[in-house]
Amino acid sequence: MPIVRVLAISGSLRAASLNSALLRAVVCLAPADIRVELYTGLNSLPLFNPDIEITDASPVADFHARLLEADGVIIASPEYAHGVTGVMKNALDWMVGSEAFVGKPVALLNASPRATIAQASLKETLTVMSAQVVEAASITLPIIGSHLDEHGIIADPSITTAIREALRAFRMEIVNCKA
Ligand SMILES: Cc1cc2nc3c(=O)[nH]c(=O)nc-3n(C[C@H](O)[C@H](O)[C@H](O)COP(=O)(O)O)c2cc1C
């Protein structure tokens, strides 16, 4: 498998989101054999309603299709009041009844060492959805309080080393998963 396709999802809608900046840095730092696409449609997903089929809401159908096409998913999401952000959980709820995350390798990036409760909750939700959370690719980075945007992240040697190592581990797991 020469190139693996990865969908990156930020759980924050904030314009100055650290999690989104982290994922933009990941897009830039990804080696040639990993194509990382940033999903920017979280804001367009309607509130989850089990009465509505995935195919009946076009933003949801698009999200579903992108997930199916992806060999792996990277999620970076903040913690709000010790929980996963509403927009992130809403997106996952839409996919619960589908096969989108079944067996899908997922890397969880955490931009805040303080945000442990939401991270654990996100991992639990993905695990119950039968995703394969890849521990070696799930890292916590000290982005919060650092005042780094994506350019600062890319310029920080210790952070870029950690991201590159996580991406390498993630690719290896994806390739093993497909074999
Ligand atoms: C409504 C709200 C609730 C928050 N609750 C927590 C929390 O429980 N634990 C925590 O570590 N940080 C909490 N924070 C801080 C955010 O995690 C932090 O601002 C983070 O940078 C937000 O992610 P973003 O920069 O990607 O938008 C909260 C922020 C907001 C706006």
Automatic annotation (TrEMBL):
Record bears the keyword Flavoprotein: yes
GO molecular function, one term: oxidoreductase activity
Pfam families: FMN_red (PF03358)
Alphabetical list of InterPro entries matching this protein: Flavoprotein-like_sf, FMN_Rdtase-like_dom, NAD(P)H-dep_reductase
Domain (NADPH-dependent FMN reductase-like): residue spans on this chain: 5-139
Cellular component terms (Gene Ontology): cytosol
Key words of the record: Flavoprotein, FMN
Cofactor: FMN
Official protein name in the record: NAD(P)H-dependent FMN reductase
Native source species: Methylobacter tundripaludum
Lineage: Bacteria, Pseudomonadati, Pseudomonadota, Gammaproteobacteria, Methylococcales
